[in-house]
Write a structure and sequence with these properties.
Layout (H helix, E strand, L loop, with lengths): L1 H23 L8 H23 L10 H22 L8
Helix pairs in contact: 1-2, 1-3, 2-3
């Protein structure tokens, strides 16, 4: 049962972090709800890694903390900005 709870936690935190990141970054992002969840999950790992580098804290200090959610949102914003920058280089040409 703990694996299912962990997966549901990843999905919920991913959805929240991805949605807030999409609200904070100006402009239109053409991504679906599953991609928003994936954005938040990847952002959570990025935020957790950056938080560990800066504050030297890890998951043993507690999984569901406000600092973890804030770190997830910051990480999701970073991932979204990188995604938009890399995705902006693609061009679609019509013949």
């Amino acid at each position: 049962m703990s694996w299912i709870g962990l997966i549901i936690s990843f999905i919920v935190v991913g959805l929240i972090a991805g949605a807030v990141a999409r609200l904070l970054v100006p402009g239109k992002q053409n991504i679906s709800i599953p991609m928003t969840i994936l954005l938040g999950i990847i952002g959570s790992f990025v935020g957790g890694f950056l938080g560990y580098l800066i504050f030297h804290k890890d998951a043993a200090d507690g999984f569901f903390q406000p600092a973890g959610i804030i770190g997830s949102i910051i990480g999701a914003v970073i991932v979204l900005l990188i995604w938009l920058k890399v995705g902006g280089r693609r061009s679609v040409s019509s013949r």
